[in-house]
Design a protein that fits this description.
By secondary structure, the protein is mainly beta. About 0% of the residues lie in helices and about 50% in strands.
């Protein structure tokens, strides 16, 4: 005291609990992730009473577990932990800053407006965004092509196939587009046949072309590439073909699938222009008079002279001579070419006067 007297108090015994040093680690080695990626943070030492994990200083979970898992981090988020021991001692770890790269917004479009095609039709699928590292196009979940190109063209799709794309960004983030389901209608193979076996006819001859398969919606018959008739009928009949004319058909199904047949080229031989002349200028003769009929053109394969429509025999000779005509007999000729084309001349009617024998009486 001030007077120099001394006294000693009772002692205070101190309990000093050991301090801890809080640390935190991440399951992601470089602390760089893609949006939505799950990351687990682990605090040490284990066995403490409470682990208060914080994101950017705000508590997100406080419990006896020394781990914290999240997939909701934003880029630049700082995660730390406050550890409290059973004795109430605390320690705050250093924070871990995580870089969160965005996912690519994967979309896919087809160049076919309604995604309904005919078998064998080429379709191009285009993925966005542009500039990604990899575009992995898939059909029914199986990869068909993976490259830095954002388009995929195919003509091998089947009905119900689903096309999607998995895009990997330059930062390694991956997103998969919604799938495009394709309706693929069966294709047809158009064929055409002619009623003429060798496709060689005479001018004016009628020919019928028949298309297959039957039962399609439309048959568009064409001559030399120009449509002549388009209807639901699978036949086309014409007698107006010129030599070298090529007939084909475009068949369209009810589903809109089309096929063009091979063409049939038809050789059309000209008809001879048959004419007939008589050696008698006015076609008036006396019974028993010899008359010669001459057919043109000359050089044909066959001349079939007829009297009153009855053939007197065909030959390669273009003349017919007779002295047995009766009054009113009509002579004509059927001229046939080497190609088998024929025409009939106009008939010549001959007037035949009967002669009378004069008997002299003595």
């Amino acid at each position: 005291s001030t007077s120099g007297c001394v006294a000693t108090s009772a002692g205070i015994a101190m309990t000093v609990n050991p301090a801890i040093t809080a640390t935190i680690s991440s399951s992601d080695a470089d602390n760089t992730i893609c949006a939505g990626t799950s990351v687990t943070f682990t605090a040490l030492p284990s066995g403490a009473a409470t682990y208060n994990f914080r994101v950017n200083g705000a508590s997100v979970v406080s419990s006896a577990s020394n781990t914290y898992t999240t997939s909701a981090l934003a880029t630049g988020s700082v995660v730390d932990v406050i550890i409290t021991t059973a004795a109430g001692c605390t320690s705050t770890s250093a924070g871990i800053t995580t870089t969160v790269n965005p996912l690519p917004g994967a979309t896919l479009v087809s160049n076919d407006a309604n995604n309904i095609i005919c078998a064998g039709t080429a379709v191009t699928f285009t993925a966005t965004p542009l500039g990604a590292s990899t575009y992995n196009f898939r059909v029914n979940g199986a990869s068909v092509v993976s490259s830095g190109v954002n388009t995929y063209t195919t003509s091998a799709l089947n009905n119900g196939d689903v096309v999607s794309v998995t895009i990997t960004s330059t930062s390694g983030c991956v997103a998969t587009s919604a799938g495009i389901a394709m309706t693929v209608n069966p294709s047809i193979t158009a064929t055409i046949s002619s009623s003429d076996a060798d496709n060689t006819i005479c001018a004016g001859e009628s020919v019928t072309f028949t298309a297959l398969p039957s039962g399609a919606a439309t048959y568009n018959f064409r001559v030399n590439g120009v449509s002549v008739i388009s209807s639901a009928s699978d036949t086309y009949t014409t007698s107006a073909l010129a030599t070298g004319s090529v007939v084909d058909v475009i068949i369209t199904t009810a589903a809109g699938c089309t096929s063009t047949s091979a063409g049939i080229a038809t050789t059309v031989n000209p008809l001879p222009v048959a004419s007939l002349v008589s050696s008698d200028a006015d076609n008036i003769i006396c019974a028993g008079t010899q008359v010669t009929f001459t057919a043109a053109p000359s050089g044909a394969a066959s001349y079939d002279f007829r009297v009153n429509g009855v053939s007197i025999g065909a030959s390669a000779t273009n003349t017919y001579t007779t002295s047995t005509l009766n009054n009113g007999d009509v002579v004509d000729v059927i001229v046939s070419t080497a190609a088998g084309c024929s025409s009939t001349s106009t008939g010549i009617a001959t007037t035949v006067f009967v002669t009378m024998d004069v008997i002299r009486r003595a």
